[in-house]
Specification:
By secondary structure, the chain is of the alpha+beta class. It has three domains: 73 residues, Penicillin-binding protein 2a (Domain 2); 69 residues, Alpha-Beta Plaits, CATH 3.30.70; 328 residues, Beta-lactamase (3-Layer(aba) Sandwich), CATH 3.40.710.10. The strands form eight sheets. The protein has a five-stranded antiparallel β-sheet, with helices on both faces. The longest helix is centred in the first third of the chain and has 33 residues. The protein is elongated and about 135 Å long. It comes from Nocardioides lentus.
Length: 599
């Protein structure tokens, strides 16, 4: 039936209407095209990179050279010079180098050169030339400028709107102790070259090695693919001295007072540890401030205690009598008849005071500082034997503590001694020494007859000349017996005896002191003759029965008429007292030695 019949529809032909593409398909096509383009660009860049880095480095190097290569110093930090307690006597503090890029400073070179010359004390014309040298992109304006000053200068430049100036770290040498031990430490000159002292002697150890940065620059910036190499700096090593800064400060002040009170030309003072030979203080006056050396005359640089030589006078009698006692030629109580004058060759020997015939013991002749009595005792020994003893005490040889310019002094060969020369050498004339030599010689008696090399450097260090010095290199050698050293010490205690001694001012209250005065004529180097001026000195040790320290003081040309007892003695007392207190050395509490002076 019609209502049951389904309506049949013809099938739609595939050509009747074209199919429609989805949007998703179109996006895939665009993505493929983009990837192809990106790949092509990267391929071009990669090919160029291969060309630059591998196939054609020469062309790139030429381009880089056209832009400019910068060589920059990376400064090493100089090692510190320290005292025995690690306190800095010389150190490196923050500083800056001021650097210019001439391609940026050329336009304002005149204004910048004026500013730098006024603020940094650099030469105007040299600086102007540097600021205009556009062949380079790196030029130093100033080195080792204090950080504060450098930053203030840069701030002024920035405010003025000038370009091309930068700062870089550059340590500055500093001497925080001023004049304390300046004679030993030395200083660096304006060109940063060491001038003297430990700064010069150990420059190689202290200096280290500067590094370098080398890179290619263009338009004020590093070119990433250009040269870029760095050699790191190697900092210098520290140098520790045996000096005690506080003791050195005290000794310098006491020495200054002694020289000024005596109206002398100069003076030296040394403090030595008896057993180790370590030098706790080595002072000169006048001296200088290491941080401002230009304010002092050049003759005050360096250490007179090592470089200046002079005839020691009667302090040398300590060595003469110790040799006589050791050789058993005399005893402390050996009797000597001392005339008012004594013929010696074609001259006459006298004493510092007028007297008739005296009856002195050997102890009396030494403690009263009789030249005649000493010569009569010394004539019992051959010149060769006395020469050998003096050599053993260290005379005639440098101490080798590591300071340039040290003098060995003069101890003539015994074969050249005339009888008159032998007489004079026995009481400290016709022989020359430096102050550290004499300190070590007196210290030999304090150390029980054993000479120990003095040291200024702790441990071991090598000088620029290749010499190894320091406490680890120190040697010792017996010169006289322990008995002879004790007998000599007992004799020297008579020198400071308040009743009979010639130098009671050298006594240190509460302590036993042994010591000897010295007064010697000075030789004028121009005429090679005695010119009427004198060296006065005092050397000794304490406590006399258990020695801890040896102190030696010498003043050149005092004009107040004083001698070794009145000038050197009080200075010795103040210095020794201060050192004993500083190291809390208690008095021994024993009674001083007493020996007969006359017979």
């Amino acid at each position: 039936m019609p209502h049951d019949r389904q309506r049949l529809r013809p099938a739609r032909s595939s050509s009747a209407r074209p199919p429609t593409r989805s949007r998703r398909g179109r996006a895939h096509v665009r993505l493929r095209v983009g990837l192809v383009l990106i790949t092509m660009v990267l391929s071009v860049l990669a090919a160029r990179l291969v060309q630059l880095q591998g196939l054609d480095p020469g062309s790139y190097a030429e381009m880089a050279a056209a832009e400019g290569t910068v060589d920059m110093v990376l400064p090493a930090e100089r090692g510190e010079i320290l005292d025995r307690n690690g306190v800095a006597l010389a150190s490196s503090v923050d500083g800056m180098m001021v650097i210019a890029d001439p391609q940026l400073t050329e336009e304002n070179a005149t204004e910048l050169a004026t500013l730098f010359s006024e603020r940094l004390d650099v030469d105007y014309f040299d600086t102007l030339a540097q600021l205009r040298d556009t062949e380079f992109r790196f030029r130093y304006v100033a080195r080792r400028v204090p950080s504060t000053l450098a930053q203030e200068t840069l701030d002024v430049i920035d405010e003025a709107g000038y370009d091309g100036i930068t700062l870089q770290q550059d340590p500055v040498r500093d001497y925080p102790a001023g004049d304390v031990a300046a004679n030993l430490v030395g200083f660096l000159g304006a060109d940063e070259k060491p001038r003297l002292g430990m700064e010069l002697t150990f420059d190689g150890l202290l200096r280290g090695r500067d590094g370098e940065a080398r890179y290619t620059s263009g338009a004020g910036n590093r070119i990433p693919l250009g040269e870029n190499s760095t050699t790191d700096p190697i900092d210098g090593r520290d140098l520790r001295l045996t000096i005690d800064r506080d003791v050195q400060w005290t000794v310098q002040r006491e020495l200054r007072n002694a020289v000024e009170d005596a109206r002398g030309d100069s003076g030296v003072a040394v403090v030595m540890d008896t057993q180790s030979g370590e030098v706790l203080a080595l002072a000169d006056h006048p001296t200088f401030d290491a941080s401002q050396p230009s304010l002092s005359p050049k003759e005050d640089y360096g250490s007179r205690a090592l470089s200046d030589v002079y005839e020691p006078g009667s302090v040398l009698k300590v060595m003469t009598v110790a040799g006589l006692l050791d050789a058993e030629e005399v005893t402390p109580t050996t009797r000597i008849t001392v005339p008012s004058e004594l013929d010696s060759g074609d001259s006459v020997i006298g004493d510092y005071w007028d007297h008739g015939t005296l009856r002195l013991t050997v102890a009396g002749a030494i403690s009263q500082s009789s030249n005649i009595g000493t010569v009569l005792a010394a004539r019992r020994m051959s010149p060769t034997a006395l020469h050998d003893y003096l050599t053993g005490f260290g005379l005639g040889s440098v101490t080798g503590v590591g300071v340039r310019g040290e003098s060995a002094g003069i101890l003539p060969d015994a074969a050249t001694w005339t009888p008159m020369a032998a007489d004079r050498i026995a009481f400290g004339q016709s022989v020359s020494v430096n102050a550290l030599q004499m300190t070590a010689a007196v210290n030999t008696i304090a150390n029980g007859g054993v000479h120990v090399d003095p040291s200024l450097v702790e441990g071991r260090a090598t000088t620029d000349a290749g010499e190894a010095v320091g406490t680890e290199q120190s040697t010792s050698e017996r010169v006289v017996s322990e008995v002879a050293a004790r007998q000599t010490s007992d004799i020297l205690e008579q020198v400071v005896d308040p009743d009979e001694g010639v130098a009671p001012g050298a006594a240190v209250p509460g302590y036993r002191v042994a010591g000897k005065t010295g007064t010697a004529q000075r030789v004028n180097p121009e005429c090679q003759c005695y010119d009427g001026t004198f060296t006065v000195s005092f050397g000794g040790f304490a406590p006399a029965d258990d020695p801890r320290f040896t102190v030696y003081v010498a003043v050149q040309n005092p004009r107040n008429g004083g001698g070794g007892g009145s000038v050197g003695g009080p200075a010795f007392s103040r210095i020794m007292g201060a050192v004993l207190r500083h190291y809390a050395v208690p008095p021994t509490g024993s009674r001083p030695a007493r020996l007969p002076i006359e017979w």
